[in-house]
Amino acid sequence: MTNADPHELQKFSDLAHRWWDPNAEFKPLHELNPIRLGWIDNHAHLTGKRVLDIGCGGGILSESMAGLGASVKGIDLSHEALGVADLHSLESGISVEYEEIAAEALAAREPASYDVVTCMEMLEHVPQPAAVVAACATLVKPGGWVFFSTLNRNVKSYLLAVIGAEYIAQMLPKGTHDYARFIRPSELASFVRDAGLHTADIKGITYGPLTRRFALSNDTSVNYLLACRREA
Q: How would you label 93-121 residue by residue, b for 16+ Cβ within 10 Å and e otherwise?
């Protein structure tokens, strides 16, 4: 069985045509992208690296990493989102290879093949996040980097990421997130250890309602990023 929720896939497939509209439903991803891209590049130095972007969607992060000189492959299970990603890659002239395949299936086919693996804003949308983490650990080369971003599970994250972002500020479509699938940092750290990875850094992402800007922070209570490495 594929580690995917058909409802979640359909939800993002239905919005695929809006992926590259910076003022539509994916506006927060466009605003967040420079922050996460810079953080990834500061750790992994993307130029010349072979990179895999898991759950790439329409390719916002994939193209950005390729723009920094990485050789990027993006994978997703949404056929519609990948179609949009392919088309935008042709329009932008930034080359990215895309494939419709699950992380676990690619891990069986291409173990230890990538210098860097990213899995951003995806773990909270799959039934078995630990299995995706294990696949990431298999896919990355010894000494390589793996990056995750997801949402913490607590009252504050529910109020801000669900009630605030989806219902009050309407930054995201209603139903974007299922609070029950949010992942505490301690839980993700456990998945990482079990997969044979070593946590190197963790950062929070905060959003200023007045500045309307995202920023890196030591506050991991809502959105957070985790960097880890496979032992050489």
A: ebebebeebbbbebbeeeeebbbbbbbbb
> Tens digit of pLDDT for each residue in 175-197?
677 888 999 999 999 999 999 99
The whole-angstrom separation of Cα 162 and Cα 179 is 7
**Is residue 201 pLDDT above 90, yes or no?**
yes
228 or 165: which leads in pLDDT: 228
Query: Which of 25-29, 30-34, 84-88 is most confident?
Result: 84-88
Would you report the helix, strand and coil content of the chain in percent, each value rounded to 5? 45, 25, 30
User: Does the structure show a pLDDT above 80 at 143?
Assistant: yes
Domain ranges for the chain: 6-230
3-state secondary structure of 125: helix
How far, in Å, CA of 137 to CA of 117, rounded? 9
Q: Which CATH number fits the domain 6-230, given the four candidates 3.50.50.60, 3.40.50.150, 3.40.640.10, 2.40.50.140?
A: 3.40.50.150
In 3-state terms, what secondary structure has residue 70? coil
How many C-beta neighbours within 10 Å does residue 69 have? Answer: 13
Which residues line the annotated binding site? 36, 55, 76, 120
C-alpha to C-alpha distance for 223 and 5, rounded to whole angstroms: 22
pLDDT at 178: 81
Write out the binding residues for S-adenosyl-L-methionine.
Answer: 36, 55, 76, 120
